[in-house]
From TrEMBL:
Cellular component annotations (GO), alphabetically ordered: plasma membrane
Protein name per the record: Penicillin-binding protein transpeptidase domain-containing protein
InterPro entries given in the database record: Beta-lactam/transpept, Beta-lactam/transpept-like, PCN-bd_Tpept
Sequence ranges assigned to domain Penicillin-binding protein transpeptidase in this UniProt record: 101-374
Keywords assigned: Membrane, Transmembrane, Transmembrane helix
Residues spanning the membrane: 12-29
GO BP, sorted A to Z: cell wall organization
Species of origin: Halobacteriovorax marinus
Single GO molecular function: peptidoglycan L,D-transpeptidase activity
Pfam families to which the protein is assigned, alphabetical: Transpeptidase
Residue ranges of coiled coil: none
Superkingdom of the organism of origin: Bacteria
Keyword Transmembrane helix: yes
Record's keyword annotation contains Transmembrane helix: yes
């Protein structure tokens, strides 16, 4: 009996061992299959990115709607608003700058609603210019410098600085504090609104450092890959090595700091989002051609860049640009209802250089409803490149696009009536 009992125990142990081996094999097989699927998804994603990148390198006029992979075809859905893009193209064809690029971003999601490139020669549109990072940032970089000064040096728009000479220049003698009857005073707020290079150069030397400015630029997306689905070239910011170089970089008075029109819109979006960077996205989903099964949907990626208080102060400063500063002329005749119900801010910039070569006229801006229930609105960046002749101000085009968006695409009155109806239904 004892012998039979031992045999039974041996069989039982053997069965348990086989069972454990089976489960171990099953788990290993399951892990292998998961890894295989992940690898296949990564390969598919890599092939898709490669094909999307080809569109930009070939200077294509439109974004590819379908991509042929090794074995099958995939369909690509984009975040573009057709009505808005049609209006922008109509505007660009009317004014015909030598080169133009317009970007519109939804602040809450980071989705790119429109990305249009235009070339006067041939009167043609392309998709490569908005995504190229061969453009000197000019005074747009003052957004980064101001954010650094407010957040880390506790300066405000009321902080006053002395300066000599014209604010549009930046000579070494202007950076020295010297008693003279020609010395003038200007607040940081007005210096931002009027884009005073001298004050920003002096403020960086006195109240910041090369390391701090580099770190803030990195936080704002410089020297970083901003987009997942497209290999957007990085915006470039180099560490200043001398005091004068620090002044040049802080004021944007240099040709080394490069950025893309996409990144220009992102700068305003960060301010509108109370200091949060919503990384830009252009693809909403990619699906298999035959089955329509979604195989990739880019996830929203965010990071905090500024404290809320700093971002709110930046909103005020950028608001001064359109009210009393360098963009006041373009926004003077903004629709009254929109002016009453929107918070609008911006920053201008102009510099000669870059590829394609010419005088760049930049304007980056945000427009968001005063009623927070209506969302965070949009950010608009316009870059015109003028070779021999000036055609239209970038700030004027941005104003026109903002008006069109809040009248035709996402009307404020319609949204207000919807909210009132919801509140009424709740009360009922």
């Amino acid at each position: 009996m004892a012998y039979l009992k031992n045999i039974k125990n041996l069989y039982l142990i053997g069965f348990v061992l086989i069972l454990f081996s089976f489960f171990g094999f099953y788990e290993s097989w399951k892990d292998y299959k998961i890894k295989e699927r992940k690898q296949a998804a990564m390969t598919t994603r890599m092939l898709i990115k490669r094909n999307l990148d080809k569109s930009f390198m070939l200077n294509s006029r439109t974004f590819p709607k379908a991509i042929n992979l090794e074995k099958n075809r995939v369909d690509v859905q984009y975040s573009f608003n057709k009505t808005l893009t049609k209006h922008i193209k109509k505007l660009l064809k009317r004014y015909r700058s030598d080169y133009s690029s317009v970007i519109v971003i939804d602040n809450e999601t980071g989705y790119i609603l429109s990305a249009v490139g235009y070339e006067r020669k041939g009167n043609e549109f392309n998709i490569s210019l908005p995504f190229s990072s061969t453009h000197p940032s000019a005074s747009l970089f003052k957004i980064i410098t101001t954010a650094d000064l407010i957040e880390k040096s506790q300066l405000s728009k009321e902080s006053v600085f002395k300066f000599r000479g014209r604010g549009t220049t930046l000579y070494k003698y202007q950076l020295k504090d010297k008693k003279s009857r020609w010395v003038r005073h200007q607040s940081l707020g007005r210096a931002f609104a009027y884009s005073n290079n001298v004050i920003f150069g002096k403020a960086a030397i006195q109240s910041s450092s090369a390391e701090r400015l580099f770190d803030m630029a990195s936080d704002f997306g410089f020297n970083e890959r901003l987009m997942e689905e497209i290999n957007l070239s990085k915006s470039n910011f180099e560490m200043p090595q001398t005091e004068y170089s620090l002044a040049e970089k802080a004021s944007g008075f240099n040709k080394e700091t490069m950025m893309s029109p996409i990144h220009a819109a992102v700068l305003s979006s960060i301010i509108a989002n109370d200091g949060v960077l919503n990384y830009p996205r252009v693809v909403t989903e990619i699906s298999e051609g035959e089955s329509s099964k979604v195989i990739w949907s880019p996830q929203q990626k965010t990071k905090r860049v500024l404290e809320v208080g700093t971002a709110r102060q930046m909103q005020d400063l950028m608001g001064m640009t359109v009210k009393i500063g360098t963009a006041r002329g373009s926004f003077r005749r903004l629709n009254r209802k929109l002016k009453k119900n929107l918070i609008i801010g911006g920053k201008t910039g102009s510099i000669t250089g870059g590829v394609p070569y010419g005088k760049r006229d930049w304007f980056t801006s945000f427009a968001m409803p005063k009623n927070p229930s209506l969302g965070k609105g949009i950010s608009v960046a316009v870059m015109n490149i003028n070779v021999k002749k000036w055609y239209v101000k970038s700030s004027y085009l941005a104003k026109n696009i903002i008006e069109f968006y809040f009248k035709k695409i996402d009307p404020l009155n319609d949204n207000l009536s919807k909210i009132k109806k919801k509140d009424f239904d709740k009360d009922s």
